[in-house]
Structures are given as C-alpha cells and as structure tokens.
C-alpha cells in the first residue's frame, strides 16, 4: 500500500454557504440587503455562541444601520440572506428558550454543521487579520478596510493589503505497509502524539517542504510524497496542506531542530486502538493519545488506520 485518500472532507474545509466574492465590491447590493442580513459576533477570545450544533446569528440591522468599518462579509446563505461578521461582545439569542453555549472554533468545530463551520472559520481568520493589520507595513500609516473587509488600503499611497495566509505541510510518514510514524513535540504533555508538520519556506514547493521538514524534525529521508487534502487553520492564519510519504523503518530517528521530544513507529492496530480511546481530551490511560477531529491530522490518521 503506497497510496490512500481521505475518507471525509476535513471539518474546517466544509462548504455550506456561497462566499459570493463578487458582492464584496458591490456597495449598493450590500446596503440594500443589510436590513435582512444576519450577523455573526466573535468576541476578543475568538468565541462564538452556538445552539444545537449551529452558530447563533443575529439581526445585522439591530447592530448598525449598514455595513461599517468593522464589518466583514462572510457570504450568502441558501435563502439569499447575506451574513457579516464583527468583533463584538456576544449577545443572547432572540429566542429566550434556546439552549446556548459559548465555545471557540477548536472546541465547537466537530459539532458545527457545514454552514457554521465555514462562517466561523472565515470570520475568525478575517477578524484576526484585521486586528494585526491596521497599519501599513510599508510606511506605518493607518490603513482602512475596503472590499467588505477583504482588503485594507493605505489612503496615502493607495497600496492595498490582503489577508496573509501562512501555508504549512502536515504529513503521515508510513512504511508502505502497516506502520506509521507519530511524534510528540517538546511542549506537549506525555502520550500526546500527532503527525509531523512545518511551515513552507520562501521559494519552496509543498513536496520539497515535506522532505525537508521530516528530515529536520526526525532525521528520516522520505519518498513518494503524495497530496491528501487541505484545511484552513485560522489560529491565527495558517493553511494546513496534508500529505503522506514513505520512509524506511530501519532509519534511525534524529531530532535535529529541537521541536520533537520523541517519535516512534506505530502499527495500524495500535493506532486503531488509540482512536477508540477518543482524542487528546480523553482521560484514557492509553499509551497513545491522538488529535481531536477538528484537525486535519485526525482525518489523515483515521483514513490511514481504516485501510485493510
């Protein structure tokens, strides 16, 4: 076995609403649709209000008379209503009988429906970017949000800036048969293992990054690098690009960059048993605890473990 595919779309990669990018520059359409539009509030801790597996959306018209400097356009629902996001304190839903909970994307992603996952992921990424992009990187001048929150402009010279995304690879290294490498970072508690990952460098392809990062982190030379899928990871602005690659288990581990505390080859049976114990939040005494379902790492591990 040298190839496999993801069984499911990673949780934060799901699509449930029309991003409607053409509407970002249509001011007349934005203003006209505002009275019926919905609003997603995200607080300073990137928390949202959820109810029944869905993010709570409120009336945009009750927040303001129209889109303002702090509003970001998130898309259009199936019924045609626009959805905007703002950094603001959370408010109780209009229905006083609704059971609600305050959670962030990491903790709520696995219970969200497709629409909520897309809206909250997009809002979190955009609002985090605005929080740190209020001054021009060129001359330090204050910038202004434009294009419904999808860009910022330096009024002095017209220079536009767009949301920054930091691409990172994440890779399951296996032997082509029944064993895969899992590793623990130095800052993680004992027994918490995941896949190897790292940021893409300037002038580097995804595949070259996989080879370099795995050699740097655990000293293994890998081959047959193959793409699996990707997932936005707005903590604060990453895009995780998933791969798998083959390595020889006879190679010794070498922790060269100081990020990895330990790594080991695990059999498919051992990984399956660990998956049955849940995830990192489990109080299981299992030797191996794995990432939660919000991460593409979990989907990659589960897809590999499900192979016959």
From TrEMBL:
UniProt keyword annotation of Metal-binding present: yes
GO MF annotation terms: metal ion binding; NADH pyrophosphatase activity
Pfam family, one: NUDIX
Catalytic activity: a 5'-end NAD(+)-phospho-ribonucleoside in mRNA + H2O = a 5'-end phospho-adenosine-phospho-ribonucleoside in mRNA + beta-nicotinamide D-ribonucleotide + 2 H(+)
Cofactor field: Mg(2+); Zn(2+)
Record domain Nudix hydrolase: where: 163-288
The keyword Ligase belongs to this UniProt entry's keyword annotation: no
Catalytic activity, EC: 3.6.1.22
Keywords: Hydrolase, Magnesium, Manganese, Metal-binding, NAD
UniProt-listed GO biological process terms: NAD+ catabolic process; NADP+ catabolic process
Gene Ontology CC: cytosol
NCBIfam families (alphabetical): PRK00241.1
Family: Belongs to the Nudix hydrolase family. NudC subfamily.
PANTHER family hit by this protein: NAD-CAPPED RNA HYDROLASE NUDT12 (PTHR42904:SF6), NUDIX HYDROLASE, NUDC SUBFAMILY (PTHR42904)
Name of this protein: NAD(+) diphosphatase
Organism: Mycolicibacterium sediminis
